[in-house]
Amino acid sequence: MGDRREARDAEFQSFFIGRWPRLMRTAFLLTGEQHAAEDLVQSTFEQVYVAWRKVAAADDPEAYVRRVMINAHARRHRRRLREFLAPKDDSGLVREVADTGDRIAQADDRGVLLKALAGLPPRQREAVVLRYWEDLTETQAAEAMGCSVGAVKSNAAKGIAKLRAIPGLAETATQGGRK
């Protein structure tokens, strides 16, 4: 009995360590604050640990965990509707190696991008982060957000339109494309 539990704990620990940086990045983009992102990811992994057998047996455990995180984030925002704060500092955020073809990763002024994301309504922000930062398909984003594909398309389009309307962000993206 103890051996199975130890094996399950080791499997969870391996999953946890491997997914922490990516989930932290996503949580930071959703919350806009380092400490809020850490709290969100930690509470997500607490829930996942309790249900680890079910999570590990899922077809895509990472998608399952992402859905748990999105739901936890949404619950927090139902309590404090529209309390998105501009990110204060992202210096402690664990960074992944940037994809050279990723326009957002090439942006010179990260602060402008983060403030712009923080200004989006919660559902638009979730759709933009999942579709364009996490590079999920519309179907995967819809599953993660618990809504229809049409709602993802609509929220992502509205969010991108708002981001494109921000002059400082548009200039940064244009300058990043010339390099």
List the helices and strands and how they pair.
Blueprint: H1 2-31, H2 34-50, H3 52-57, H4 61-79, H5 103-106, H6 110-118, H7 122-133, H8 138-145, H9 149-164, H10 167-178
Protein name: SigE family RNA polymerase sigma factor
Organism: Streptomyces cylindrosporus
Family: Belongs to the sigma-70 factor family. ECF subfamily.
Can you describe this structure?
The chain is mainly α and 179 residues long. The chain has a single domain (2-178), classed as Butyryl-CoA Dehydrogenase, subunit A, domain 3 (Up-down Bundle), CATH 1.20.140. 74% of the residues lie in helices and 0% in strands. The protein contains ten helices and no strands. It has helices at residues 2-31, 34-50, 52-57, 61-79, 103-106, 110-118, 122-133, 138-145, 149-164, 167-178. The longest helix has 30 residues, at 2-31. The chain is elongated and about 60 Å long. Mean pLDDT is 79; it is low at 81-88. It comes from Streptomyces cylindrosporus. Residues 21-80 form the RNA polymerase sigma-70 region domain. Residues 112-163 form the RNA polymerase sigma factor 70 region 4 type domain.
CATH class call: Mainly Alpha
Beta-strand content bin: under 5%
Which range best describes the helical content: under 10%, 10-25%, 25-40%, 40-55%, 55-70% or over 70%?
Answer: over 70%
Number of helices: 10
Give the structural class: mainly alpha
Radius of gyration: 17 Å
Mean pLDDT across residues = 79
CATH architect. name: Up-down Bundle
The geometry reads as elongated
Largest sheet: none
The end-to-end span amounts to 58 Å
Q: Assign the CATH topology.
A: Butyryl-CoA Dehydrogenase, subunit A, domain 3
Number of domains: 1
